[in-house]
Amino acid sequence: MIGTKGYAAQSPTTDLAPWDFDRREVGAHDVQFDIQYCGVCHSDLHQIRNDWFEGIFPMVPGHEIVGRVVKVGDQVTKFKVGDIAGTGCMVNSCRTCENCKDGLEQYCLHGNTQTYNSLDSYGDGSPTYGGYSNTIVVNEDFVLHVSDKTDLAATAPLLCAGITTYSPLRHWKVGKGHKLAVLGLGGLGHMGVKFGVAFGAEVTVLSTSPKKEEDAKKLGAHHFVVTSDPAQVEAVKGSFDFILDTVSAPHDFNFYLSLLRTNGTHICVGVPPEPAEIAAFSLLGGRKSVAGSGIGGIKETQEMLDFCAENNIVSDIELIDIKDIHTAYERMEKGDVRYRFVIDMATL
Prior knowledge:
The chain is of the alpha/beta class. It is built from 11 helices and 17 strands. It has 2 domains: 191 residues, Alpha-Beta Complex (Quinone Oxidoreductase, Chain A, domain 1), CATH 3.90.180.10; 131 residues, Rossmann fold.
């Protein structure tokens, strides 16, 4: 076994603290890489608190992971020692179902294995532990190539926040000639703006906070609408082809559906804690759709990383020491981050 240092929550009511544990030895098809940076996702906080479902404890969060390969299995063909590698939200899947064969491992019909807080039912059945640690072992099919010409710390959040916004925009072929509204300007939203602009769409940020307008424009947004201002809202009613909804707090879907034009689509990538109530008339009056999207598959995630490297796209981040993770969580809950915390794992 490989002795590993990490930060773990021992229960839903305890803070993260140093925890030593063992990872499996490197198998024939495994890649081990030492973690240099790990992004902090709001879902990390949700999961250590059991907000969504009962977790597996001790829990080591983290699924925006970038580091350098230190060992590969004797059957590995995709990586060599010294490569820069990344792993996102999943580390295994059944490989045999229709979705897996189509490169949609994120929608594995038998359930994929999450990078943490999951049981690897396609491996030895043991719990998975994430990126708040100094090293990780992952099957080569779920490891991504990361360009060494990018800012590695700012690249880490692409493994979740990046692909979560890239995938739906590509699936719905959002681009030139489309009016895209990005609802919310946080870790996901700021990447949605960057990708929307890069794909050629006319991008508007929808926000309850007037103070975010300057940031939205700096990120490349063409327009900004304060959703608490009736006059601004009235001016954009029925105008958007797509709304990319990144908000994880409760909000009124019917209100935002009114901003879509005929045949418009409201795409949910945020995860509010309560079920949405959508009136049928909000959909019928304009043949509008509400859709959802998770992360991307491995092939699409690699495509996204390559696109970002070629177009100099990274996340806007604040680099922190791991000892400051609880302060980061507190600030994240208040929206006080521009726009993603990333842990420097050298501080572990």
